[in-house]
Design goal:
This protein is mainly β and 179 residues long. The protein is built from three helices and ten strands; from the N terminus they run αααββββββββββ. It has helices at residues 2-6, 9-19, 36-39; strands at residues 42-52, 57-70, 73-82, 87-96, 102-105, 109-118, 121-132, 135-149, 152-161, 164-177. The chain starts with a helix and ends with a strand.
Length: 179
């Protein structure tokens, strides 16, 4: 009998969950304007942490980024150094999409990522292939970047597998100069 009492609440909860979804367009009026060709240009440095699914920081890192654009296509060369001395490299290629966003590819990205830009925000969704035990594992990444000043960007990334959050990355990116 008690189950029937909660049944009418299910559609209301689903509707509330759908309404609470944040989209890049929600930031359309915010400044400073995020223009990837301007922010991701020159020398940048990133500093951040990786959290496990429980929210505990499990790694710290820095990354030197060399970013440039040629014929409308962006290249971001990211060289990571983790707190345990491990090094990694990711090279992103960003190609403009007719909708005003970008298609992003990298060596450890499965397929293509889709980036959308509005106001001071840029959201990038992609699947990242990570080393795991004796093989690899593919995780979804919901990357949300917010320009807070001309030279500083805050990035929060949620990592998920089968729809469940398995980790998080928080970082700042600072522009050091144009090349």
């Amino acid at each position: 009998m008690m189950r029937w009492f909660f049944l009418p609440l299910v559609p209301a909860c689903l509707a509330l969950a759908a309404c609470s979804s944040v989209e890049v367009g929600d930031y359309a009026g915010n400044a400073p304007a995020m223009v990837p060709q301007e922010f991701f240009s020159g020398t940048l440095v990133a500093e951040g942490v990786v959290k496990n699914r429980g929210g505990r920081v499990i790694r710290r890192f820095t990354a030197d980024i060399d970013a440039r654009w040629r014929d409308g296509v962006g290249t971001l060369e990211e060289d990571f150094v983790f707190d345990n001395g491990e090094r990694d490299r990711r090279v992103w290629t960003l190609r403009p999409h007719p909708d005003g966003g970008f298609i992003g590819t990298a060596g450890d990205v499965v397929g293509e990522g889709r980036a959308s830009v509005a106001g001071n925000a840029m959201f990038l969704d992609y699947v990242l292939r990570l080393p795991w035990r004796d093989g690899t594992i593919d995780v979804g990444v919901d990357d949300r970047m917010y320009l807070v000043s001309e030279d500083v960007l805050i990035n929060e990334s949620t990592l998920s597998k089968f729809g469940f959050r398995v980790g998080e990355i928080l970082l700042t990116i600072r522009r050091l100069g144009d090349t």
